[in-house]
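Section 5.1 Outputs to date
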Amino acid sequence: MKMDNIAFGVTDWNNVEPTEHKGETGVAFWRTRLFGDPANQIRVRMVEYSPGYLADHWCSKGHVLLCLEGELVTTLEDGRTFTLTPGMSYQVADNAEAHQSYTATGAKLFIVD
């Protein structure tokens, strides 16, 4: 990730309109901001998963993800699982290890990709 042409700015996430993304079960609400040139854009999101959310796909996109609230279980395609609680994060590169998210209780995440 190269961060070019991004002026200093402040985001009040409460003022960013959420979009709904249905999972295989449950729903995710994304508050999304895009920064930088379109050819090298950085997407920054505040994401809230409902209890029982299971992503409807295996994701190959790289992320830096920080768990703010709740509990998130991330399963890798090879079967390994990792549980994140508030204050924990993970990072993964594009096309490195496909992953799928699940939460029994709901979770709030801050994600940069």
